[in-house]
Amino acid sequence: MTEQAGKPFLYVVVCAAGIAAGVSKLITAAQERDWEVGVIATPVAMGGFFDSGAVAAQTGRPVRSAWRTPVEPRPFPPPDAVVVAPATFNTLNKWAAGIADTLALGTLCEAAGLRVPIAVLPCVADALAAHPAYRDSLRRLRGMGIRFGDVYTGDVGPDGGRPDVAWERALDLLPPR
Q1: Measuring CA to CA, which residue among 8, 56, 50 is closest to residue 31?
Q2: Is 40 left (phi over 0), alpha (psi -120 to 50) or beta?
Q3: Helical (H) or strand (E) element with 29
Q4: Reduced to 3 states, what is the DSSP secondary structure of residue 32?
Q5: Class for domain 4-69+76-172, per CATH?
Q6: pLDDT, tens digit (0-9, with 9 covering 90-100), for 17-62
């Protein structure tokens, strides 16, 4: 466990899916469970999929998306756990293949290698979920000890709204502290 304020530190990795707009609910649930939270987003997710300014204010930390230089201080302590929500088709497949071409993917590859507990809420359209590479990726990630929650398609409902996401389910997937 990290020493900062005596609280464990949770990385929340946010990918570019429509439901990302609700990630503040996950952060609130984590904070209510006494987690300190830092958010890392994919570069595409930073393009308006969620309110990064509001998330930074909520966590008290900048939302990270780009690599830091070796002389820059680490803005977050090492993670005690990681939640990926929403996790997209692209991110899950690249992660399973060991591709670390963004800060988010590099963080996920490293955390898995360090055996940091990781929980995932996928957000993948049915047509993409039917792709054999996706099924293979899920199998590989599960074999690495990654825990998965419900899959959300991210589709807009008939009333124009997004599906209800059980954000706290990701926290339930983490082992007890």
Answers
A1: 8
A2: beta
A3: helix 23-32
A4: helix
A5: alpha beta
A6: 989 999 999 999 999 999 999 999 999 999 999 999 999 999 999 9
Backbone φ, ψ for residue 42 (5° rounding): -70, 155
What radius of gyration, in Å, describes the C-alpha atoms of the chain? Answer: 15
CB atoms within 10 A of CB 74: 7
Q: What is the pTM of this model?
A: 0.93
What residues contact residue 54 under an 8 Å CB cut-off, 6+ apart? 24
Residue 53's identity, in one-letter code, is G
Nearest Cα to Cα of residue 93 among 138, 41, 145, 148? 138
Residue linked to tokens 């590859």: 109
- Residue 95 CA to residue 141 CA, distance in Å, equals 8
